[in-house]
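WARN retry 2 of 3 for item q-0093 after timeout on previous attempt; input resubmitted unchanged.
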Amino acid sequence: MAELASLVQRLEVAVGRLEAVSGGAGGSPMGGSSGAVSVYVEAYDDLLSGPVAQYMSLSQQIGGDVQKHAEMMKKAFDCQRQFLVAASSCQKPSDAVLSSLLAPVSTIIGQVQSFREQNRSSPLFNHLSAISESVPALGWVAMAPKPGPYVKDMQDAAMFYTNRVLKDYKEKDKKHVDWVKAYLSIWTDLQAYIKQHHTTGLSWSKTGPVASASAVGACPAAGGAPPPPPGPPPPPMDLNQSTGGGDSGATSRNLLFASINKGSDITKGLKHVSDDQKTHKNPALKAQGGVVRTGPKPFSSSPRPTAAATPARSLPPVLELEGKKWKVENQEGAQGLVISDTELKQVVYAYKCNNSTLQVKGKINSITIDNCKKLGLVFDDVVGIVEVINSRDIKVQVMGKVPTISINKTDGCHVYLSADSLQCEIISAKSSEMNVLVPGEGGEYTEIPVPEQFKTVWDGKKLVTTATEIAG
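OK item q-0093 returned
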């Protein structure tokens, strides 16, 4: 079955090449550059028929959510191939048109990531996470001048989860190990492909027509076709244009302003309504005019329009000592942050730092990580507590000693203990995906999960709570 799937993949690539050749023979607008341009489409086909086909084959063997995820990935790669074919025969368009050309791939990338979030209880969650973390690599076509390093960064983002897959299945099922190797080889080969054909950015045709929004054919969406874009907005109202003949528009405006300027006298022109003309005092009028509601209006089922959300402000990054507190705030993609001139009485507070690494040298009082995502922390010695709260995907490495580590309201926290910190107390609450890594012989770490599920029973005198292993 696996060999058949691989064969089908290769046949699809071959058919695509034949269609490209027949299209070129029918009058390609590429002119003399068609030979050079067709080379990188064929090279991309080699990627599809090689590591992508191998990844698809192994995903079908594993089945389940992994196979469903792989089918979505296959559509993303096919859609990107159509984009490359368009780029090989057209000149680079404006940014607005380019965004519309990239939209199909972007839509599938979003669906791939959503699939992982919708299946967090899947037994193959680590497989799904590896794909979800690295699939943005397909956005390399919009990256300049370093698309290759961008793909490498996305590949590295998957390493944490691929290592977990290798750890879980290394002694159980070699098929999953081969799956990891095949998937990672996609991004390795893509980096080599980019280095050869698109070193500083996507290579567009120099002689073809400027790409239009229809240059890329319809791509099969992973979860159904996205809704059509809304129509153009109505033309702006011309306040100077009259609504009738002559200058009636200007006359109407003048009358309006004149009425407003009357102040309280504006009510003098209102007509008095007698009691026999009021519907609530003359029931006969209700029958003549149909049903007339009395009292307050009923509640409307349609929601009230809400004010537009205030765009999030981008705050400047901070790394400074304020009194006894080291403030590390709003760091985005900052690799290699270091705090070295420390004292025992000082504390470190990291807030809203994403995709960054922080090293704290020396011995200090305490460290707090608050509202951070994908932050790596390395420190020497802490005499108080290291606290992680309201965060996600945090890695903490102890080089010296620490008495207590607290993890609260955090999803994904890995603590690497040193030989001197094995007596550390780890306190957790309302958190998930926590693991403690203990050093062993040869410098290798043993990963031990922190329990997330507990059993409580009444023994006749008190409640007794014990940790349980999650089934499956």
